[in-house]
Model the fold of this input.
Amino acid sequence: MLRKRNYLVLILNLLVSFIVLGQTQFKQLSKAEKVADFNYLYQELEQSYPYFGINKRAHNTDWLSNKRDYLKKIKKTKNDKEFFKVFSGIMNDLNNGHTDAYPTLIYNYFYKGAKQAVAHDSIFKNYVRELEKTDSIRSKYWKEINLELFFPERKNKETNINETKTEISENVEVNFIDSLSTAIIHIKSFGYEYVEKDADTLKYLFDKAHNYKNLIIDIQGNDGGSDEYWMQNMIPHLINDTISAPVFYGFKNSDMLKKFKPFYFKNTIAYQEIGLPNMPKELKDGSYLFRKDDMVIPPSNKKKYTGNVYLLVDHEVFSSSEALAYFCKATNFATVVGEKTSGDGVGTDPLLLTLPNSGIVIRFTGEMGLNPDGSANDETKTVPDLIIKASNKKERRKKLINHIK
Done:
C-alpha cells in the first residue's frame, strides 16, 4: 500500500514538473529579451556577413542602416508570434537564400547532419555545439509559429513536411535519343540523401552516354544540396585526367569565422595577388581577407567522354548546383546553356548562430565566392555561354535539342 502511495506521489510530482516546464518553455519573450536577441544578431552579422554591399546594389536595401527601424518594429511586438513575423521579415531583407532561420524550422535535420559530419571532419563539432545551445522542443515551438504565420493550411496536417518528406521519387531521369545521338540526363536534386543512393545509377548512365555524340546534363530546378553529388558521381565518369578550377573567397576577419572556418586563416593572400578585374569595391576596404582553393576532381576511369557536353540551367539553380555551373564555366568542361542562375554556389557550409533568449538558430553565408572574372558569384550569378529564352523547362530543353540538330 505504501509502495502504491509512493508511486502516486511520484506521478503527481512528474505531472507538476511537466506543467511547470511547459509553462517555462512557452513563456513569452520580454521586450528586453527580443531587443537583446536582435542586437546579438546585428553585431555578429556586422562583423562576419559579406553581402551587405551586394544587397545595396541588387535590392536597394541598406540592412545595417535600417537598425533603428528594425528595433522599433521589434519593440512594438506584443507576443512571440508577432516577434517571429517581424524577425522573419528582417531576415528576408538580407535577400540571400543561405541566410535564414531554416536550422530552427528543421532543427533535427541540421543536428543529425552535423553529428554525422563530425566523423568526417572535427570542425563540425562547432556546428553541433551551436545547435546544442537550444533544443528540438524550443525549435518545434518556433516551427509551429512559422506554420501558423506562413503556412496555416499545413498546421494540422503535416508539421514535419520539411523534415520527413525529403525524398524525391525518381531523382534521376534519362532519355537517349538515338536519332540525334544525344543522351539527356536530368537530375532534380543534389541532396545529401542522394549522394550514395544515386551513385551506381549515375555511373551506369554516364558509361552508356559515352556512346553518344551529345550529352545534356539538365539541372533545371535543382536548388542544390551537396557538392559531393556532382564531384563524386558525375564529372569523374566523363574525364580521363584530373581536372581542377581555382576558387577565390573574400571573408571578414571575425571571431565567428575563426570559430567555424579556422582553415580559412591559413595561407591567406593579399587583395593584389588575386588580380581579377571585376571584384566588388567593398573587398578593397581592408576588412576582408582572401583565400585561394582549388576544386580538384580526379577521374574514375581512363575513358574520357569525347562528345559535346551541355549543362542546362535555369534561374532556380542555386548553391551546390550553382557550384557545378561555376565549375563548368571555369574549366570549359561543358557549355553552359539556359538562363542566368541564382548564384551563391562558391563557398562552404553556412555559419550557424543561436540567439541567446529565443533559441532561434539562423544560418548565414560566411564568405564571398568570386567568379573567374572576379565578380561576386552571389551578385552576378552564372551567365550561360548560350542563353535560351523559354516559358518553361520543357520548352528550354526542346530549344536546346533543336539547337543541337
Summary: The CA atoms of residues 346 and 400 lie 26 Å apart. The first helix runs from residue 2 to 25. Residues 31-163 form one domain.
